[in-house]
């Protein structure tokens, strides 16, 4: 009798342990199924080609690859596929700077004239902190004339004036990243790549990672457009990191557990040191530094992550076919937080883009036809879709076409202050100052906090007076 009782107790204990185990597994299983359904819809709708990874408490909640390594669609992606993370790669540069600060080799208040770069007098006013916050007044790289790193340095050495007094405004630019790398190299007497390998890549045991890999590099993917054509991937600066989604997860986890730099140093990077709520080199964080999110784009590459320190939650996406990454990752994050989420729709911008470049009237007509027949499939709800297309056309120097799209956007979203601001910018570019002024004023009426509109209104008044 005692023997049978003992066996029964063991059996019940076994059932109890299994039940506890199932209870622990169940939340992850629930998230896994919901995420998989969302991603299958995204893949079926042709709006996601890439890799997804969700981790919580060092455990994988969901990991899967969708789609192909390039436009030919011959080879499928794997978890070892290497992508460009776009601006997320700038985090490696900023953290390297803070490592040198913690080592006592650098101070954020150091003037960049300290370094052997041959820069003009304005370098006496620009600090390392200005570079990290994009508040130096140094302009963006002139990609029309600059062909290599030698050209970049020469152009900076010949720069007579800054765009504004350092610390008085923000101008997001890659010249600041270039100079940070040069500072690292001047201090360490090593290339930025070698410094990062020794201090980041090797210690974190990153395996699927490379700097500036060629097309034939193992597992390196190509980016492609909506027409499944491999697109340009040129870059004139060196030392850009490409990596797999697993290695990006290692980076995020190490960063948020202060394995690379201290908590105090990380918090300095997670905010703009000069302007509240302005872009910083690490993306963005909340005021309590318990969340970190960042997105990056490079040609048709797109990457994004949302990470919570407290819950040890990482939601990461990497794509080689730029589409709805930021909408998708928001839905994934909401799933993990047990919040409501939306199924992503196809991008109307990407769908009508080529027609708008060929013939703006046909492009706008196509937009209206799709809205009448495919409202549930395409994203007509977000003003950012048409705003992005307007700037796409503007950047291609198609002024009239850009104006046409912004007018369409305003007719669709008449209360959106940003769209009036955008149309004001196009008219200003075309030197139609009266129409530019009209739209900036309308934007300011809709959003009284629009500092850019205020600045541009003053600028236009000044130009007209002359």
From TrEMBL:
Domain Beta-lactamase-related: 39-269
TPR repeats: 417-450
Highest taxon in the source lineage: Bacteria
Taxon lineage: Bacteria, Pseudomonadati, Bacteroidota, Flavobacteriia, Flavobacteriales
Keywords: TPR repeat
PROSITE patterns: PROKAR_LIPOPROTEIN, TPR
Identification of the protein by name: Beta-lactamase-related domain-containing protein
Keyword match Cell cycle: no
Pfam families: Beta-lactamase
């Amino acid at each position: 009798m005692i023997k049978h009782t003992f066996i029964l107790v063991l059996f019940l204990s076994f059932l109890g342990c299994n039940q506890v185990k199932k209870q622990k597994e169940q939340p992850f299983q629930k998230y896994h199924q919901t995420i998989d359904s969302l991603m299958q819809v995204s893949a079926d709708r042709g709006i996601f080609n890439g890799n997804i990874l969700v981790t919580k408490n060092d455990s994988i909640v969901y990991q899967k690859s969708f789609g192909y390594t390039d436009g030919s669609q011959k080879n499928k992606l794997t978890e070892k596929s290497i992508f460009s993370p776009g601006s997320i790669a700038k985090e490696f540069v900023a953290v390297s700077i803070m490592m040198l600060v913690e080592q006592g080799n650098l101070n954020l208040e150091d003037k960049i004239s300290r370094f052997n770069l041959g820069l003009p007098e304005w370098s006496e006013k620009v600090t390392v902190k200005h570079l990290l916050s994009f508040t130096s007044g140094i302009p963006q790289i002139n990609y029309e004339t600059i062909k290599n790193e030698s050209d970049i340095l020469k152009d900076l050495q010949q720069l007579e004036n800054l765009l504004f007094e350092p610390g008085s405004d923000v101008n997001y630019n890659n010249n600041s990243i270039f100079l940070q790398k040069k500072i690292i190299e001047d201090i360490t007497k090593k290339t930025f790549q070698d410094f990062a390998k020794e201090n980041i890549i090797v210690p974190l045991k990153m395996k699927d990672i490379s700097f500036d890999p060629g097309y034939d590099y193992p597992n390196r993917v190509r980016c492609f457009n909506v027409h499944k054509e491999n697109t340009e991937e040129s870059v004139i600066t060196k030392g850009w990191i490409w990596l797999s989604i697993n290695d990006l997860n290692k980076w995020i986890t190490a960063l948020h557990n202060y394995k690379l730099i201290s908590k105090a140093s990380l918090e300095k990077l997670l905010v703009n040191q000069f302007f509240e709520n302005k872009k910083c080199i690490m993306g963005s964080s909340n005021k309590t530094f318990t969340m970190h999110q960042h997105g990056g784009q490079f040609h048709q590459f797109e990457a994004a992550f949302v990470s919570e320190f407290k819950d040890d939650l990482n939601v990461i996406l990497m794509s080689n076919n730029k589409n709805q990454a930021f909408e998708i990752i928001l839905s994934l994050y909401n799933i993990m937080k047990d919040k409501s989420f939306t199924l992503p729709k196809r991008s109307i911008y990407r769908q009508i883009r080529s027609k708008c470049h060929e013939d703006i009237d046909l492009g706008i007509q196509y937009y209206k036809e799709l809205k009448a027949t495919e409202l549930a499939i395409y994203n007509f709800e977000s003003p950012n879709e048409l705003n992005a297309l307007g700037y796409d056309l503007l950047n291609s120097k198609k002024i009239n076409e850009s104006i046409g799209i912004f007018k369409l956007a305003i007719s669709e979203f008449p209360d959106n202050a940003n769209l009036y601001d955008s149309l004001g910018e196009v008219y200003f570019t075309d030197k139609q100052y009266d129409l530019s002024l009209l739209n900036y004023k309308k934007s300011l009426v809709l959003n009284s906090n629009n500092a850019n509109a205020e600045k541009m209104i003053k600028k236009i008044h000044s130009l007209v007076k002359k």
